[in-house]
Amino acid sequence: MTHIKWLCFSLLFVCLLSCKEEQKNLPEDFDFGEVKDHTYTNSYFGLSFDYPKDWSQQSKHDIKAITDKGEKYLARENTKMGSILKVSQINTAYLFSLFKYPLKSTQDYNASLSVIAENIAGSPDVKRGRDYLFNSKELLKQTPAQYKFEEQLDTENLGGETFDILKAKATYGPYKVQQEFYCIVRYGFSLSFILSYTNDEEKAVLHDILDTVTLE
């Protein structure tokens, strides 16, 4: 269950701007993308990237199961936080989820990559990724994990576009996890990559995936 808790914490940062009275639903024909031959593609965002064969990609059903468990877990830990996560699902799309090990693995911690899009039509102040990430920090501080953030946001070019990056270290029980939140505003959505890892080997694999990103 530990890796599910950590994924829930990493997903929480997308919820902050969802806690507004004016909610925007995802379009009925929203493109969640597809996976074929270890390549994820999404025609709406013009996004494509490759991932390693020995890592475990999760289906939409798997991702929903994780977020449902996360909602229940966080509701127990913090009633307000659980409500925020539930509301955020109105306009947040979990496009892709990848783990180092299968979810039923007995590994203590499971490095992961998540790709998430959120409709920001109701948030006119969010002009670029750093606007979105700036607001996420306070929400993450409310989780049971002990977050420490780098003071300055970084930037990096992925697929020819500039992403803003929030880097953090978090502690939960015996686990010390590093997370990197890459974000860009694209076609009326925030598009985010969330990397979670515990060592340099896992970090290298996740960054190798980012190196394959193309945006058309």
Concise structural overview:
The chain is built from 5 helices and 12 strands.
Key words describing this protein structure:
single chain; 216 residues; alpha+beta; eight-stranded antiparallel β-sheet; four-stranded antiparallel β-sheet; 5 helices; 12 strands; 34% strand; globular
Characterise the protein shown here:
This protein has 216 residues and is an alpha+beta fold. It is 30% helix and 34% strand. Strands 4, 5, 6, 7, 8, 9, 10 and 11 form an eight-stranded antiparallel β-sheet that branches. A four-stranded antiparallel β-sheet has the order 1-2-3-12. The longest helix has 18 residues, at 60-77. The model is unreliable at 12-22 (pLDDT under 50).
Low-confidence stretches: 12-22
Global structural class = alpha+beta
Our estimate of the beta-strand percent is 25-35%
**End-to-end CA span:** 37 Å
Major pleated sheet = 8 strands, antiparallel
Q: Which H/E pattern describes the elements? A: HEEEEHHEEHEEEEEHE
Mean pLDDT over the residues: 80
Number of strands: 12
Compile the SSE list and pairings.
Blueprint: H1 2-12, E1 34-36, E2 39-42, E3 47-50, E4 56-57, H2 60-77, H3 79-88, E5 92-99, E6 112-119, H4 129-141, E7 146-149, E8 154-158, E9 161-172, E10 175-186, E11 189-197, H5 200-211, E12 214-215
Antiparallel strand pairs: 1-2, 2-3, 3-12, 4-5, 5-6, 6-11, 7-9, 8-9, 9-10, 10-11
Helix pairs in contact: 1-2, 2-3
